[in-house]
Amino acid sequence: MINARHNGVLRAIVQDYIRTAEPVGSRTISRKYGFSLSPATIRNIMADLEDMGLVAQPHTSAGRVPTDKGYRLYVDSLMERTPLSPEEVERIEQQVRPSAQEEVDDLLREAGKLLSALSPYVAVALAPRLQDSRFRRAEFVSLAPDRVLVILLADNGMVHHKTVVSDEPLSQEELERMARHLSDRLKGRTLQQVRDLLVSQMAEEKALYDRLLAQALRLGTQALAGETQADVYVAGASRIADQPEFADVQKMKSLFAAFEEKSKLVMLLSECLRGGGCRIFIGSEIPVEDIRDLSVVASPYGRHGHVMGVLGVLGPTRMDYGHAVALVETTANLLSRSLSERAA
Fold first, then answer.
1. Most Cβ neighbours (<10 Å): which of 184, 233, 255, 296?
2. Do 240 and 191 lie in a common domain?
3. β-bridge mates for residue 148, sequence order
4. Number of domains in the chain
5. Helix or strand or coil: residue 68?
6. Is 218 helix (H, G, I), strand (E, B) or coil?
7. How many angstroms separate the Cα of 280 from the Cα of each of 15, 123, 128, 130, 298?
8. Which of 191, 224, 257 is the last residue of a domain?
9. Per residue in 267-301, pLDDT tens?
């Protein structure tokens, strides 16, 4: 059974290891953390913690380091949340302040850069899924005689754009008429419904009586082809190289490969959306094998109480969880407020 002494020593080991990245010995705990216990008693408590699987001893003569299980107990029961400074809160408010000129993806990129700048970790942001957004309007822009930039705007502020090939040369005036056609027919539908409707109307001969409408349907269908996965923005990936845990080149290579493969990050962050509120995955708890040397702190953001995506940081399991939670939650809450004000 774990008691108050065990909890106190485990808290001291975790806090010291977070700061130093060095195994923590009994003398260090006795000297730095004011325990009225002898080093021998502390060694016995540390041995108990090791038997419980909460700490490990990397080498026979070394001190102890927390295990994933030890970090989990610390996070769930022993951690004190570190409040952000007024300067940090003000900086976040400034960075995610709503602007009529900025789209949601721009705000997410800024929020990610900010999370990385205010912490020594990699920041990630999961954008709203395209198929869950509701269509607001389309814009077609001529780039060349046979190339058109299709821009689809959703009511949650998301913007999807794709360059597609046109079957015939079209003037900008014709493209604008086509965009109005498409916007009138599809406004208010989810983008998944838009995709289905475009495909079904393309198959109906009656939809082809109007040459421009037929082209609009084709361009819209091409623009949405294959677009089913939410996007992920990553900021500060190089910060991970500053952590002593990742001095091994092969370990670094596998981590960067995982960051490049967005589908793995989508899988991880989608898992963070389940259950609501701030989520913490520690090491082996992470559902993506290539990232299990890390921990993740993530919190959902949204608009008017409706969850749109998730913001978070990835760092070593030796993460300052108290500060990371405060930083991620504050940023997600202020971003949600900005998105709600922007939509008002």
1. 296
2. no
3. 142, 164
4. 3
5. helix
6. helix
7. 17, 14, 21, 26, 7
8. 224
9. 888 888 876 789 999 999 998 888 888 899 999 99
